[in-house]
Specification:
- There is one protein chain.
- With about 350 residues, the chain is an alpha/beta fold.
- It has 11 helices and 14 strands.
- The chain has a 10-stranded mixed sheet, sandwiched between helices.
- The protein starts with a strand and ends with a helix.
- The chain binds S-adenosyl-L-homocysteine.
Amino acid sequence: MLDKTDIKSLNYKELQEFVAELGEKPFRAKQIYEWIHVKQVESFSEMTNLSKAFQQKLDEKCHLTVLTKEAVQISKIDGTRKYLFVLEDGNVIESVLMKYKHGNSVCISSQVGCRMGCRFCASTLDGLVRGLTPAEMIDQIYRIGKDIGERISNVVVMGTGEPMDNFDNLLRFIELLTDEHGLNISQRNLTVSTCGIVPKIRELADKKLAITLALSLHASSQAKRLELMPVANKYEIHEVLDACRYYFDQTGRRVTFEYSLVGGVNDTDEDARALTQLIGDMNCHVNLIPVNPIKERDYVQSNASVIAAFKNKLEKNGINVTIRREMGRDIDGACGQLRKRYIERT
Ligand code: SAH
């Protein structure tokens, strides 16, 4: 597998070059790209408008990444589905389908595990195994689309892993996902969430894409952020916010700040005031997330009245706020917990 071409990770142009190298006609590239990215077949033998000989040649020279659905949990409340996929090397990852009125949204993982160490997050407890290939990222969306037999219209890179820690593969994934020859998802319907890797936020900004940047802020000061997110040791909060301002300047896209409310830690009136000071000048949106407690840590959710008060305070200060709807309450378990339970069992 190692010396074979990862054909699902090739962009359209590279596939054209590859097909030319194999001595095949240029239009074959369009056909193959369509089989892989539109029809989303699982093997070369399903590419029925190619000759048997060409199918065999592809099979010898290439590898077609396909994830295997190991388990799926379906919410009885809102139809949210949590998938556990097995990768070809035996590693497992999670993805989530959320059904909204405006369409189907998939939350994908970008890495196997994570090395960022955020204190409240289950995905990082066992560290990083490896980054996902572009093919492994995109196939989460393809398999889920096939599974439900419906189009996926929105994608959020908010599952396990730090996308900016797998930057080149992330960029390639974005290219594949938004390619007009493929699934053709609009850049506007894609959100990438980061804990704040400053140089990569700036690099992404320079690409001037129309994707939404979500920044996991979670604190109203550098000192508090340090308590929750070790990445703050490397990138100071003002440096991170400046990178977000730069992102807006370059792309014109309003940045989303994710703020997980942790009872007694970051949910006071003083926090709301300090947060306003920090981001009040920005064209942004704050998404409040009641922290999802994990058993390995003793953080608790802020109670509902505290959350409502926090929201009101920000709104009074002129900040756009939503409280994240908790989808799939009944199948919940915080990010990374399905995978963690699976690993512990096997
Ligand atoms: N590494 C990226 C994307 C993955 S995490 C990032 O940090 O943004 C997606 C979001 O879920 C982040 O905002 C993260 O801080 C948040 N999150 C992780 N565990 C959580 C938990 N137990 N409760 C609430 N939010 C959590």
